[in-house]
Amino acid sequence: MTLLVHLFVFLLALTVAAPTLQAQNWQTEYLKGQQEITGKKQTLMQSRNLQQRHLQNQLQQTQGLQSNHRQNNRQSIAWNKNQIQGRQAALTESQTGRTQIIQQEHSSGFTPPLQQRAALTTKPASIPPHLQAIFPLKPDHQKHVDAVLDFWERQSSKIERLQADFELLDYDPNFGPLNEPKTRSYGILKYAKPDKGLFRIENVTNYTKQPNGQVVYVSQPAAAKEHWICDGKSIFEFSYLKRQLIQSPLPPEMQGEAITRSSLPFVFGAKAVDIKERYWVRTLAPPDPQSQYLIEFYPKKREDAASYQRVWLLLSAKTYLPEAMQLFAPNFTEAKPARKVFSFKNMEKNPHQGILANINLFHREFYEPALPSGWQKIVEPPTVSLQNLPPNPQTLQTPPNPKTQNGHQQILPFRIGNNLNQRRE
User: Comparing C-alpha atoms, which of 281, 286, 334, 335 is closest to residue 304?
Assistant: First the structure.
C-alpha cells in the first residue's frame, strides 16, 4: 500500500512538472527568437547607415565637381572678356597711330617702306612709376644681367629637342585655400626646334578637406586635364570637357623661330635681345648661388601683362635649363597671393640621338592630332598678335615689398636670399 502511494505521488509530480518544463523551453525559444530579430534589425540599421553615408559622400563629390566646373567656367569667361577687350583696345590704338602716320606722310609727300612704317608705330616702353624704384639697374648689376642672358642664349641655341616632367601648383586664394595650392597637376613638356611644342597635364588633383579636418588631394576626372600641341602652323587644343579639338592657326609672324616670342618664352630660351625688348629684367639671390641663377621678369607688352604680373625663373648654372618657374597672376597681392608654380624634373636636352633621331620618333607627337572618336573639330580664325603694344597702365600694379616676401616663404617653391630687397643694384 505504501509503495502504491509513493508511485502515485511520483506520477502526480511528473504530471505537474511536465507542463512547467515545457513552458520553460517555450520561453527559452521565444527569447532566442527575440534576440535574433533584434540582431537582424541592428544589422539592417547599420547597412542603411552605411548606404546613407555612401550616398552623402557621392553627393558631396558631385557637388564639388560641379562647383569646380562653374568656377573654372567663370574664370575662363572673365579671362576671355579681358582678352577681347585688350584686343579691341589694341586694334583701335594701332589703327589710330597708323592713320596719323599715313596722314603725316601724305602731307609731307613721303611714304617710307612698310617695315619702317611699322617701326614708327612702335614706341619704346618707358619705365612705369611702380618699377622706377627698381629700374634702371646700376651698371654692375645690368652688366651681370646681360652676361647671364647672353650665356643662356648661347646654351639654348644648342637645344634641338627638349623634354621634361613637371609638377604644377596652382594657388587660387579666391576659390581655394590661402596658403595651399588649390590644385596639384602633373604632366609632360616637349619642344622641338624651331617651332614645335607639346604641353600635356595627365593628372589633376584637387584640394579637399575631410570632415575630420585632414587635407587630401583627390584625383579629378579627365575633363580637368589640359593638352595642346603646336606643329609650327597651328595650335591644337584638346577640350576634354566639351569633347572638342580646337585648331587655332598661327599668324605668319608667330611661325618658325617666332615661337620663342610666344606669351611664355622662358622654357624655350629666347634670344637676349628679344627678352630685353619684352621685359624689364633683373637677377635676384637664388637659393644656391653656387649652382643656380634666379631671374625676375616684368612685362613691357600688354599681352604679357594680361597673363602675369611678373615671373621668377630658376636656372641651373650648370645646364642653363629651368629648374622651377613661378608666374604671379595679374591680380597678385600679399593678401591674396594668386600664382602658378612649375617644378621641372627629368629634364633632358636633345634626347633620341643617332639612329632614333633619324627615324623621327620624337617628332611624331607634334603631328596634327587625329580627332578622337565622338569629338567635334573647331577651326578658329587666325589670332591677332598684340606683341608690340605696351601694357595698359590700369592693369599694372605695384609689386609687393621684397622685404615682405621674405616673411611669406609659402609663396615660393624655393628659398630666396636676404638680399632680395636690393634696389637699383
Answer: 281
φ and ψ of 188, to 5 deg: -130, 155
Which residues are CB-contacts of 106 (< 8 A; sequence separation ≥ 6)? none
Q: List the chain residues with pLDDT less than 70.
A: 1-27, 30, 58, 60-125, 257-266, 268-269, 352-363, 383-425
Cell of 265: 618664352
- For the chain, count helices (H), then strands (E): 7, 13
**What type of residue sits at position 90?**
A
User: Which pLDDT does position 393 carry in this prediction?
Assistant: 46
Distance, CA of 178 to chain centre: 16
Q: Distance between CA atoms of 201 and 185, rounded to whole angstroms?
A: 7
| DSSP conformation letters of 211-240 | TTS-EEEEEPPGGG--EEEE-SSEEEEEET
Using CA atoms, how far apart are residues 191 and 230, in angstroms rounded to an integer?
A: 9
Side-chain-side CA neighbours of 422 within 13 Å: the count stands at 17
Cell triple for residue 93? 590704338
**Long-range pairs of 231-234 with CB within 8 A, sequence gap ≥ 24:** 231/196, 231/366, 231/367, 231/368, 232/194, 232/195, 232/196, 232/256, 232/259, 232/366, 234/368
Q: How many Å apart are CA 379 and CA 248, to the nearest integer? A: 6
d(CA 347, CA 322): 9
Query: Which three cell numbers, joined as nine digits, stand for 185?
Result: 597637376
SS3 112: coil
Q: Is the pTM of this model over 0.70?
A: no
Half-sphere CA count of 74, side-chain side, radius 13 A: 8
